[in-house]
Amino acid sequence: MKVQTVGVVGSGTMGAGIAQIISQNGFSVLLYDINKEIVTRSLTRIYSQIDKLFEKGKLTESESHDVKTRIRTTVQLADLQVCQIVIEAAPEIMEIKQTIFQDLDRHCPNETILATNTSSFSITEIAGFTDHPERVAGLHFFNPAPLMPLVEVISGLRTGEDVMERLADFARSINKSPVTCKDTPGFIVNRIARPYYNEALRIMGDQMASPAQIDRIMTKAGKFRMGPFELQDMIGVDINFATTESLHQGFFGDARFRPHYYQQRMVQSGQLGRKSGGGYYEYDR
């Protein structure tokens, strides 16, 4: 089935970024969220990003207009039945994903691929909420979605091989570099990344160095583009903490993935990073 329209469920930072990059590569996008105010605010942010690309000369005026017109919005999940692929980018709360996938399974034709952008939840478990688990897979983008080239394509225990092939082809069609993997906690990238965050938190907790010092060492000496604390602030401290918790549980309490209490305190205090105006660093809102 030729992909013409892609549905995106959830219009937060990740969902909006996914919708933008898909539209930039010529596909129609149907962006869903729970109410008109949220999805309208998201569309305004997307338009602002597209305008910046035009101002930088990366899009012509005609191209920027076309990108904008290819994105439509809805507050009715049933409207996504016209899509050949639906990508769920809702909050990392399993109960929310369960409801979404049960509804999508009911509304969308059997040929529609249902993908989740989860960074840590089990694809197999999410697929189990549907009557057609063979059409459910992971399609994990990285933040910011328009810029980061890697996409993980993850198979659950019952995901069809044709679904994996179609998602990998789709990822390439939007100029991403897909890597396929099995359904294990954290998949590839988040499993590798946990020590990057956790050891930094332990070093800070032991008062050996400050977040700014650790970030400077990792960027200057380690040649990372962003330090672990700056990166947490960009991703969202709450999202990062939830991912660590999920991996720790997924590996049955393996000490390698144990969360740090200070990160929990940051979440409890509402210091979530850039989106809240402050995390390990302060930001203008």
TrEMBL record:
Gene Ontology biological process: fatty acid beta-oxidation
Site residues by UniProt (Important for catalytic activity): 140
Binding of NAD(+), residues: 10-15, 33, 92, 97, 119, 143, 275
Listed pathway(s): Lipid metabolism; butanoate metabolism
Sequence ranges assigned to domain 3-hydroxyacyl-CoA dehydrogenase C-terminal in this UniProt record: 186-283
UniProt entry keywords in alphabetical sequence: NAD, Oxidoreductase
Keyword Glycoprotein in record: no
3-hydroxyacyl-CoA dehydrogenase NAD binding domain ranges (all copies): 5-184
Signal sequence range: none
UniProt protein name: 3-hydroxybutyryl-CoA dehydrogenase
Family, as annotated: Belongs to the 3-hydroxyacyl-CoA dehydrogenase family.
Pfam families registered for this protein in UniProt: 3HCDH, 3HCDH_N
UniProt-recorded Gene Ontology molecular function terms: 3-hydroxybutyryl-CoA dehydrogenase activity; NAD+ binding
